[in-house]
Amino acid sequence: MSVDVTLPVLSPKDFASDQEIRWCPRCGDYSILAQMKKVLPTLGIPKEKFVFVSGIGCSSRFPYYMDTYGMHSIHGRAPAVATGVKLANPDLQVWVITGDGDSLSIGGNHFMHVLRRNVDLKVIMFNNQIYGLTKGQYSPTSPTGTKTKSTPFGSVDRPLNPLSVAIGARATFAARSVDVDIKHLCSVLERAANHKGAAFVEVYQDCNVFNSGAFEFASKKGKKEENVIYLEHGKPLIFGKDRDKGVRLNSHGQPEVVELGKGVTADDLLFHDEKAEDMNLAFLLASMRHPEMPEPMGVFRCVDHPTYNDAVYQQVESATERSGEGDLEALFNTGDTWNV
Amino acid sequence: MATTDVPGSNGKISEQLDAVVIRFCGDSGDGMQLAGTQFTNVSAVFGNDVSTLPDFPAEIRAPAGTLGGVSGFQICFSSSDIFTPGDEVDTLIAMNPAALKTNVADLRRGGTLIVNEDAFEKSNLSKAGYEGNPLEDDVSLAAYQVQRVPMTSLTRDAVADLGLSPREAERCKNFFAMGLVYWLYQRDATPTEEWVKSKFAKKPELVEANLKALQAGYNYGITTEAITVHYRVDPAELPPGKYRKVTGNEALAFGFVTAAKLSGKQLFYGGYPITPASDILHELSKLKNFNVVTFQAEDEIAAITSVVGAAYAGDLAITASSGPGIALKGEGMGLAAITELPLVVIDVQRGGPSTGLPTKTEQSDLYMCMYGRNGDCPLPLVAPASPADCFEMAQEAMRIAVEFMTPVILLSDGYIANGAEPWQIPDVSQLKPFNVSNENTQDGDEFMPYLRNEKKTRPWVLPGTPGCEHRVGGLEKSDVTGNVDYSPENHQFMTTLRANKIAGIADYIPEQTVEGPESGDLLVISWGGTYGAVRTAVKQSVQEGLSVAHAHIRYLNPFPKNLGDVIKRYKKVLIPELNTGQLRMIIRGTYLADAVGLNKVQGKPFLISEVKHKIKELINEEN
Predict the structure, then answer these.
(1) Contact residues for A68 (Cβ-Cβ < 8 A; gap 6+)
(2) Could you give the domains of chain B?
(3) pTM flag (> 0.90)
(4) Domain map of chain A by residue range?
(5) What is the ipTM of this complex?
(6) How is domain A28-233+273-312 classified at the CATH fold level?
(7) Which tens digit of pLDDT belongs to each residue from B57-89?
């Protein structure tokens, strides 16, 4: 007997909650929210199966604005909450919404562990290089010298590179996009949604109140073409408005920008391989930072590995197969017993 | 006192006793925990009532032979029901000078001291800080019946033909010691022999060596001229039924698995290793075929927050830790309290603050568990009284959590967690059913996550349920809708509502009972692992004609409804605690009762005699 299952056709509107959105006007978060609402209906997953878990910060208000299941949890701990949700019910698609402060400062530990375990969750990090909700202190991703209320003479910290950390934790999926690059962001979110395992996406996000224009190099038309490389699996690293520049490795194995033509062809360039098992290429791409180098956008790494939640359930299943379904009577009577 | 001859006793006198306290102590590599556990097993299987107290060194491996590396295991076994591992030691087995030095003060005058004479050589003596050999002078040990047994060399001889290395051969000396004590107390070694055979199944030479050492120790008892008496302790008259031995941590694991099984739910344990709570994780990790998911998190905060997530998604979720770990979990508990999700947090208390006395028992986390969260955040607290009671209180904690949609704290302690006692195996068909509903039973189109029932409890409807999509979180909620609401009136309303919900649990827990007279001169109030010592002290005082009763509180928040009335029926109140007076402060604040404390913070449980002494003192003042 076959059963026809027709999923309701969902639209972005179906994912909008009735809550008033309280982000600052022109905040980059609006665009990320809009793209998320566009992507979810395309995944073929019933609405009730989505869970959004967030930490604390502007970005972390996100779950309130989605008409799905969700939890606004505590600062930095969303990956751990989400791990509990996914382990309790692996049938749910669980998204973690976090910011650069939330996930790299107070939550650095959980960020690293959720990725190395490969729990099947989607971690979207809104990176605005600043603390917005606490009104403008520097964050772990702020460039050295950033002047803020807590660093009036400029920060002396060296910043963390989120993708390097993620790749170092052996994330099976790592990608980057920009809030206002609507089509690109949609495609990256969609690929993250479809990845089986922990998917990490860094989104450059504009905080127009405390750190306006930090990512103009990567978002502004006319500038971004010269500053960004869109990664495509199996394709050479070419960029520029006229696609006349590329990246190749120099004699020391370091990436360098070269002009195409004049004896340099696409074949001389570095080719992207998101499926590479070793992480050297992904590290190298993550290390390319503006303004010294063009910054890569897109999927840095996408490899297949068993997920943590599957492995946990396989153990439960094999233990049940081996010993039979747990029987309290038998459990209580194990070991030495005696009658009185 | 009866004297009978038993076969194989070589004509020696057999003396009958009611209760005996034995302590094995030695270097932490000497296998003393193993010897103690095995002796407990054979005594329990024989039918004695047993109670145990393991005592671990805090260092993983202090230098061999030093005072810091001494590991001990105390057992009381008896022909009547007992509630503690005993005050004074009747027989002390000391495997080296350091063990002797740190334990001999607990041996009663006239008690039996069995020492491994071989270990009393110069370097061990100096490591233990002895200037001379206490076995060689006439004063040091004159109060005791000293049996000098060259255990190392006798063990080496016993296993000589097995081709073991000298080190392997010497490691069997704990079995020699066990054999000797088995003879001394007429224990049947069969359960230990079976255990050795299965434990070392893959190493037949070790099976043979340990069995030979055990036999050699037993035979030494028969043949040596030095020991002329051995003892018999008859089986205890416990309520009829089938029994096994459990530790508190085992019983907690059994209790939570039972709650999950009875409710048809998956059990989720998120934890981070910490002494003395880790055994709960170890026990549950073995029980995956009971649909148990265990998650060893990266830290205590991940442990509690993973449990919050698992509870949100529908599992019966628990986490366990000890003092410092519970401190880290405070914020997570607050999240669970405001999101009103059911979960249980187990605190196996140890000496604090900070790392404190990591392997020793204390009851000093009561304030932290009662109050240690930001905001006005009362949570239910329950505390098992003994290792076996952990089975019931685990289920009670989970029942309260689910029935009232709240995190519940279960306060155990190191003494309960590692101690063992007989447990009457329950009839599974008689266990209280445990129903959980995750259905949406509301009328109307829109699901209201903070709509409440008569217990002020909100519904536990799970992600994945169509049409009930909702968000929870740490920001203040509006009643009924659960929407974020910071308005002043709403915060006051919700704070009161949450507190009233927890206070209302008092209508659903048993009333406080007392052991002893319904009114009188003195009421002794206890909680947690001091139950045994207080119970015995009060019982003995009543037998001596004193007007004293005992109320042991297992529900600490809310208190049983009648507790205030109970307290009023006595002229004085004594609250013995292994802290500086935490319950006393709360009782005084709640009931305006002029309670007196008996407080001990030495990392050790109460002796019965300490509590008795205080009872007498207070009653004498009264009269």
Answers:
(1) A15, A40, A47, A48, A50, A51, A52, B469
(2) 13-232 (3.40.920.10), 244-430 (3.40.50.970), 520-621 (3.40.50.920)
(3) yes
(4) 28-233+273-312, 235-271
(5) 0.96
(6) Rossmann fold (3.40.50)
(7) 776 667 888 998 899 999 999 998 888 998 899
